[in-house]
Structures are given as structure tokens and as C-alpha cells.
Amino acid sequence: YPLLSGGYIYDSDLMKDRVVLDYDLSWKLFGGTQLEGMTVKINGKPYYVAGVIQRETDKFTKKAFTGEPVIFMSYSAFSELNEEAEIGCYELSMPDPISEFSKITATEGFASSEPVVVENSKRFGFMNIYNIFKNFGSRSVADKGVIYPYWENAARVAEIYIARLYVIIALLAAFPFICLIILLVRLIKLLKAKLKLLGLKLWDAWDDRYARRAARQERRMMKRRFKNLPPSEEEQFDEHSDENEISVNEGKGKSLKPIKKIGDTFKKKFSGISSEDKKSRRTTKQQGAHKDAEEPEILSEKEIAMDIESIVREIMNESADSGFDSKS
Question: Range of 166's domain?
Fold first, then answer.
């Protein structure tokens, strides 16, 4: 207890006539707290006031305590006043090097009287509060003739309040945990739905790749088909005949002589072919193009280029021969 004035009483005191008053009794008897050395008479016997203390003022003690003033004295002095006085409660303060060593020692020391031993060092721990819930019904049953002091009753009331507080904490902790579980379940469902949709899209893409490949091939064939439909050979070369004349430099300082047009030479080359044969060839080519459109029977660009080069060489040779004859 907190000391307001004076001092405590000790077992080593030679005279056992010293007492300690609480705050309420000091005000009722003397109207103050500075009472060291004053005398209090009990059953006509004087006792000297050693000091004044302040008892607990918490709500648990107020519920457990009767509210009457208290005086503290040694057991020997109290037994002189009441020969039938008994000790109903012991409070031990000792080291506990091993778990529950002090509790086991106290239980074995008072085994003959079936005591109720309470360990206060772990009284408000989680396991002790859990045991209150576990033994909730049997804990309220008192089957031993033990009168608890007011501080023990106050501690038992505090245990009930702490147990309620643990329940509230558990509920508050469970609420966000339950919300987290709900969010996780919804998230898992959403991910499953997205994965399922993604799988369907991939499956559709896998199925459609052959169709897309066939469509691309068809588009390429159409492009090639339109590219491979130029005009006939005669018309193509007639267009080239209208271009500029080709000149060849016969030597340094000499004038350039115009060379015959490619179209004229081409006409001379094919002059042996009658117009009816040309028409028949055109009709056969058109019929073959309609029958097999994918492989039109026309000359390639390389073949046409080779024919043009051969014609140019013939023209150059003819011009060279004519120039040589004129010189001679």
C-alpha cells in the first residue's frame, strides 16, 4: 500500500503494540493523516500509530471491499484481543526459478487443510483467461469453506472483465480476418473467370489460325493472279517502240547515228507470221488463260529482257557492218 505518513510495522519489532491506519480511519479518528506517534485504544489497551496508508481506489476493489475503515496490526497483537482468531490467508513472495515451483511448494506445505492456491504472477495471462472460459460453470461453484480476502475477490472480478475484453478483441480481430477471407474468395473467383476467358480466347485463336492462313494464301494468289495478267507480247513491245531512239557512239569525235527502233525490228522478225496466225495464237492464249488462270502462258520478264538484248545486238551488228562498208 502507498504510505501517506509514518512507516510500516515489521515482524522484527520488539513491541507488538504498533498499528497502521488507512486513510478513511485516520480521518474519522483524528481528522488528518500526520498521526505518527499518536495513540489508539482498542478494548482499553493503547496502541501507537506507526503510519497511515492509502488503500486501493480502483473499481474492482470498491466492488469487493465492504467500505469499512481498516486497521493493520501484527497477528500476535490481534490474538491477544481475540483468542479464537485464525489465519485464513497466506501471501507468499518467493523466487520461482522453475515454472510453478512456488505453487507446488505451497500446495504441498498445506496439503492437510485442502487449500486454494492461486499464483498471481501469471494470473492475467492468456492461458489463465482461457481456463476461465473453459471452466466457466465449475469456477462459480465454491465447494470449500474458504473466505477470500477482499483483494482476492477484486482480482477475480478483474479476471472476468479481462475475459470480456479478450472476447471483444477476438471479435474485432475476426472481423477484418473474415473480410479478408471474403475478398480472397472473390479475387480467386475473378481470377478463375479471367483465366477461363483467356483460355477460350487462346483456343479460338488456335482454331482460327488455319482459317487465317488459308485466307492469307488466297489473298496472295489473288495478288499474283492480277500481277501476272499483263498485255500480250506484241502490244507490250509496241509500247516500247514509241520510246526514245537508242544511239550508239561509234567512235571518238564521230556523230551518233540513230539506230532502228526496236519495234520495227521486232515487226520484221515476226513479219513471217500472218495476221490470222496471230489471231489464232491470241485466242489459244486467252483460252489457256481461262482454263488455267493460276499459270498463265506468258513470257517472264527475264525472257523478254533477253529477247530485247538479242535484238539490240543484231541491230548494232547491222549498223557496224553498214558503217564498215561505207568506209571501204
Answer: 122-227
Residue 92 belongs to some domain of the structure: no
Q: Which range has the worst mean pLDDT, 92-106, 186-200, 220-234?
A: 220-234
Q: Which three cell numbers stand for residue 251?
A: 567512235
Q: Which of 69, 80, 75 is nearest to 30 (CA)?
A: 69
Q: Are 131 and 156 contacting, i.e. CB atoms less than 8 angstroms apart?
A: no
- CB distance 159 to 123 below 8 Å: yes
Whether pLDDT at 231 is above 60: no
Q: CB under 8 Å to 234, separation ≥6 — which residues?
A: 270, 278
pTM of the model: 0.49
CA-nearest of 101, 155, 98 to 132 is: 155
* Residues in contact with 29: Cβ distance below 8 Å, sequence separation at least 6, in sequence order: 21, 40
Angle between helices 126-134 and 150-227 (to 10 degrees): 100
Q: How many angstroms from the chain centroid is the CA of residue 139?
A: 45
In the chain, what percentage of residues exceed pLDDT 90? 6
- Given a contact cutoff of 8 angstroms between Cβ atoms, the answer to whether 189 and 257 are in contact is no
The number of beta carbons lying within 10 Å of the beta carbon of residue 237 is: 20
Domain final residue pick, 37, 65, 86: 86
Is 142 part of any domain? Answer: yes
Q: How far is residue 21's CA from residue 35's CA, in Å, rounded to a whole number?
A: 9
